[in-house]
Design the sequence.
């Protein structure tokens, strides 16, 4: 399968712990996005990379969140000191210069 | 700022009938794209159809068509001959052609009845 892949698909963690999600975009795509989606809502933009450069960050991305794309290929999203409000699905997407972006299946986070 | 409004939280349609899902948008950009995505319960966002703001023809992709009315700032999705597998959340989204961020609406849950 050559689509966007995300790992892990599901994560349950205790409040205060750190979690990290990985995204592998479609191989020829130079742009990578992270979105957050809570139940009953549409996805909300978090951050965007072009190659390894992080070009845009949403105000939703508090200082507990950090995203990297060190070699312009895969990306990681880390959440430090998780809070119950961080419970959501974290979606990764990628594209090139085309008219749409392609999403992964998401990583579900539950903070207990 | 861009905003997408989907006023139908839930819709029901009988199998084999057509259904229209509403989407209105607000933007000050002159050049932009409008998109519809389907999200089944598995969570994956599946691209359905795209309409450019300068496209004069309404976009069509198989059973999906986009009813684009630029003056009204609406981009409704029409699904013809509904199938049980069409039951899912549907999201309208837009992106300015010189921007990178997609803005999504709150979604409409479509249920297809046998």
Sequence:
């Amino acid at each position: 399968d050559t689509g966007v892949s995300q790992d892990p698909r599901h994560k349950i963690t205790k409040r205060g712990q750190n979690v990290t999600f990985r995204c592998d975009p479609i191989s020829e795509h130079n742009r990578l996005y992270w979105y957050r989606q809570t139940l009953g809502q549409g996805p909300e933009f978090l951050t965007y990379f072009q190659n390894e450069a992080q070009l845009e960050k949403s105000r939703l991305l508090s200082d507990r969140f950090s995203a990297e794309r060190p070699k312009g290929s895969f990306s990681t999203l880390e959440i430090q000191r998780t809070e119950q409000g961080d419970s959501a699905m974290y979606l990764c997407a990628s594209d090139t210069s085309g008219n749409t972006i392609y999403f992964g299946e998401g990583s579900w986070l539950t903070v207990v | 700022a861009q905003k997408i409004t989907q006023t139908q939280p839930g819709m029901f349609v009988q199998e084999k009938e057509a259904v229209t899902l509403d989407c209105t948008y607000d933007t000050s950009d002159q050049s932009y794209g409008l998109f519809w995505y389907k999200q089944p319960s598995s969570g994956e966002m599946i691209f359905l159809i795209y309409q450019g703001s300068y496209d004069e023809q309404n976009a069509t992709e198989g059973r999906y068509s986009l009813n684009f009315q630029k003056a009204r700032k609406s981009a409704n999705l029409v699904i013809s001959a509904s199938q049980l597998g069409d039951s899912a959340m549907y999201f309208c989204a837009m992106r300015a052609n010189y921007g990178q961020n997609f803005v999504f609406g709150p979604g409409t849950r479509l249920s297809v009845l046998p």
